[in-house]
Specification:
The protein contains 3 helices and 5 strands. With about 120 residues, the protein is an alpha/beta fold. Strands 2-1-3 form a 3-stranded parallel beta sheet, sandwiched between helices. Strands 4-5 form a two-stranded antiparallel ribbon. It is globular, with a radius of gyration of 15 Å. The model has no long low-confidence stretch (mean pLDDT about 85).
């Protein structure tokens, strides 16, 4: 658990440094933040929504326009990802953060919606 917190802090630090170093990022940064806790057919998690809320707040402080959602079904995840794709301007920056269950199969990672 401590390793995950360290990784999150490192990511936030790197984003903050990049935002400070690259001045063009100031107005064209969009982040999608998803936290899934309440799984119907898997073990309920206790920290993803809190982690997502913290990450969203930090990204807002760094000047990102944040799309924040929690406990999404597959349909809702598909819809918000499309919203996110449309929000990224040409030459802009998009950052995607997910906290919740995920799996890896043959080298590909999959994010698990709450209704899977």
């Amino acid at each position: 658990m401590e390793i995950m917190k360290s990784v999150r802090l490192l990511i936030v630090f790197l984003v903050a440094v990049a935002a400070w170093v690259v001045p063009g990022w100031a107005s064209d940064r969009v982040a999608l933040v998803i936290g899934n806790n309440d799984y119907e057919s898997a073990e309920r998690l206790y920290s993803p929504v809190n982690d997502a809320n913290d990450m969203a707040a930090t990204l807002r402080e760094l000047g990102f326009d944040v799309i924040e959602r929690t406990n999404l079904t597959r349909q809702a995840m598909d819809q918000v990802i499309e919203e996110f794709k449309l929000a990224i301007q040409p030459g802009g920056v998009g950052l995607f953060y997910f906290s919740g269950h995920g799996v890896q199969l043959e080298g590909a990672n999959y994010l698990i919606p709450v209704d899977a």
